[in-house]
Amino acid sequence: MKNCRTSTRNKKRGTTLFEVVIGATIASMTLVAGVSLFFGSMMNWAKGAGMIDAMSSAQEAVRMIGMELREATTATIAADGLSVTYSVPVRNDDGSYRMPMTNDPTPRTLRLSSGRLELVAAGSTRIIASDVITTDPNTNATYRVFTGDGALLTREIDVQVVCSKYGSGTSKEVLRARDSFLLRNVQQISR
User: pLDDT per position in the chain (191 positions), as tens?
Assistant: First the structure.
């Protein structure tokens, strides 16, 4: 005689609707957390990339300006501090200075124009840095790119370059580079 009772061991049991809903909810919460973490990481990466771009642009501009100004024999800073006009000594074919030292007749100017830091020499313009700002976005204080030592004959020039680059989304990263340069070839004033 067969047992009328069905054995529960032999029955295949399926999942209930409640278990499916709980599983789907846990999976979707995990997916949302993973996507949020991914986008948050991407935003931080973009912000860091903007900071690196602004810092390297400002530092490279200050380095290039320093290479130009260190060789100057005379320098005149504009009253607004946004440009400097200077002369460099004439060089021989081998790169040494011509003696007695004389100035190259080509006028040279470093200037800030429309957010670009430019070197103008012999009618040609070379862009040294772009996205240069002169107003602090937090305090609205103004920056002077070039500042002299205040002496009758300028021997030292302070250079401050502030660059603003886009980081994540529409936020801008603002970073500064600053250095002082001694003009090596300025003639001494004799009495």
Answer: 555 555 555 566 788 999 999 999 999 999 999 999 999 898 888 888 888 888 888 899 999 999 988 888 888 899 999 999 998 888 888 988 888 888 888 889 999 999 999 999 988 999 999 999 998 887 888 889 999 877 666 788 999 999 988 776 677 888 889 999 988 776 655 44
Position 24 in a domain:
yes
* CB-based burial label for 40 (10 Å; 0-12, 13-18, 19+): exposed
In a domain, 7, yes or no: no
For residue 143, give the nearest of 119, 118, 177, 169 by alpha carbon: 177
The secondary structure of 118-135 as a DSSP string is EEEETTEEEEEESSB-SB
Residue 128 lies in a domain: yes
Instruction: Give the closest residue to 75 by CA, choosing from 84, 66, 65.
Output: 84
CB-based contacts of 54, cutoff 8 Å, min separation 6: 131, 163, 164, 165, 173, 174, 175
Q: Which of 177, 143, 172 is nearest to 161 (CA)?
A: 177
In a domain, 51, yes or no: yes
**Which residue range(s) make up the domain with 178?**
17-182
Domain total of the chain: 1
Neighbours of 183 (CB within 10 A): 19
Is the separation of the CB atoms in 146 and 110 below 8 Å? yes
